[in-house]
Amino acid sequence: MIKTFLLHKQKILFLGLVMLTCLLVSAWVGDAKYWHEIDWMDVVGEGGSAIAMTIWIAFILGSRPQGRVTNLLTIGLGAMMVAFWQDALDEFIRIPAEQWWGQWIESVAMPLGISILTFGLYHWYQEQIVINQTLKKREQFYREHLWFDRVTHINRVDSLKKQLALIGQNNPEQVVAIIMLDVAKFSWFNREYGRKEGDRFLFHLTELIQLNMASEHLLTRYASDRFALILPNTSLEKAKVTAEYIKQACHHFYYHLQKHDAVYVPQIHISVAGCNGQDAQELIEKGNKALARAKQLLKVA
After folding, report:
1. Model confidence pLDDT, tens digit, residues 89-114
2. pLDDT greater than 80 at residue 180
3. Could you tell me if residue 219 is inside a domain?
4. Are residues 102 and 234 in the same domain?
């Protein structure tokens, strides 16, 4: 988050300078009010609003890269923050009536900020539509950042259960298939090359799997090296075709080790299961049992 803030240091410095200027000029031209003259309800309302705007700006600048949407949201919220800040200062400092600039800041900055913020939200909405299309293979009906896996950049098993439950609610009679796969001897890979290399491998494996999925399919990380792929409204036969595509892609995946002059070709275990009208937990159990059988057959062979 600190690194992201550094991308916007000019914006932060400018907003801080504007607020400091309002404070210094108000103190220079005005007089401090007596304690009994201060309306503390207004102080709480206007000061609290200024603080809220500051927190919102911090969230934006701490989580977004540079760009038009970030600039519009920051300018809009910044103008509103300055208006509330000047309102709060007026509760402590009596500014002479001939000093029109204070009233101008309060009257003009607020509607201007709201207009710019609205324009920024519109562009943020357009941006979000594009992002949603990009994330379609990672989330379908439900979004929860707490379930996000930071290694593979897909959701974890909690999301899998929620997505399956929502699929069942929307159309309980549709056929749903599940593809389960894991990496053979992945614990050995971690011991041999280190966990950091293992995490990097899993990230690239995730990208490879997604290249061989349809847009309506959903991939989640089920466990350490195990993945679950949900195929809504897909027969078992069609799911087996998708599983074969993924299997062949993984068998031709030459992963270049970062700190070793070598490549690693993973061996995966993969299975397919399906259901019609069954609950999420039952489908997951069928997928895990099918994967266990596939691993057993591979050992026998």
Report:
1. 888 888 777 666 667 777 888 899 99
2. yes
3. yes
4. no
Count structural domains, the chain: 2
For 48-66, the pLDDT digits (tens) are 999 999 999 999 988 888 8
Instruction: Indicate whether 32 and 118 sit together in one domain.
Output: yes
Range of the domain at 263: 145-300
- Give tens-digit pLDDT for 154-168: 888 887 788 777 777
Q: 157: Cβ–Cβ under 8 A, 6 or more apart, which residues?
A: 220, 221, 222, 223, 228
pLDDT band at 128 (very low <50, low <70, confident <90, very high): confident
Distance between first and last Cα of the chain = 50
Residue 173 lies in a domain: yes
